[in-house]
Amino acid sequence: MIQRQNINDIILKRRSIRKYDPSGVVTEVQIKAMLEAAMLAPSAVNSRPWEFIVVQGRNKLDSIAGDHPYAQMMKTASCAIIITANPDALKGTKIDGMQMWQHDCGAAAQNILLQAAYMDLGTCWCGIHPNEDRMDSFRKMFAIAQNRIPFCVIAVGIAAEDFGSRGFYEESKIKWIN
User: Roughly what angle, to the nearest 10 degrees, separates helices 28-39 and 101-118?
Assistant: First the structure.
């Protein structure tokens, strides 16, 4: 019988990793599992506004680190996944004009992080949107069409650090209404 992890264990295990084993390898099977998890995320009226760019070349990963001030971990990451958004995905639907892609792409990113944690991979989510200069730079670096929005880049690799879980439950952040 296959031993499955409890979802809480995976959530507790997930954290932002900024140092990776530079000799570590993330396999194509693992990358596809993360992308499948991303595409299983909920989206407004099932619009699925996301597209993905998988970056594996060392020169491109180093370019990301050189361009994005908060993505220095790319220097040791095995790969990166860039999530881009199609803001026109809702055209012709009952919620045409609403900017739901931000929520949808955020859900896809979280699914990538959780799937990676399940596979014992480290990740770090670095925002690109809404910084206009950063979005323009990523458009140029990765030939992203002007009508697509570079949303975030996620570093993926074999963690070379472990700090345990970071988040915690705070009762003071909750308002109960009966």
Answer: 140
Give the whole-angstrom CA distance, residue 36 versus residue 39: 5
Neighbours of 27 (CB within 10 A): 12
Retrieve residue 49's tokens: 């506004």
Q: Distance between CA 105 and CA 112 in Å, rounded? A: 11
Query: Considering only CA atoms, which of 145, 146, 149 is closest in space to residue 100?
Result: 149
Beta carbons within 10 angstroms of residue 98's beta carbon:
13
Q: Hey, how many other C-beta atoms are within 10 angstroms of the C-beta on 146?
A: 7
DSSP secondary structure letter of residue 105:
H
pLDDT tens per residue, the chain (178 residues)? 566 779 998 998 899 999 999 999 999 999 999 999 999 999 999 999 999 999 999 999 999 999 999 999 999 999 999 999 999 999 999 998 899 999 999 999 999 999 999 999 999 999 999 999 999 999 999 999 999 999 999 999 999 987 677 778 899 999 999 9
Query: Which residues partner with 126 through β-bridges?
Result: 153
Is residue 71 exposed (0-12), middle (13-18) or buried (19+ Cβ within 10 Å)? buried
d(CA 26, CA 172): 40
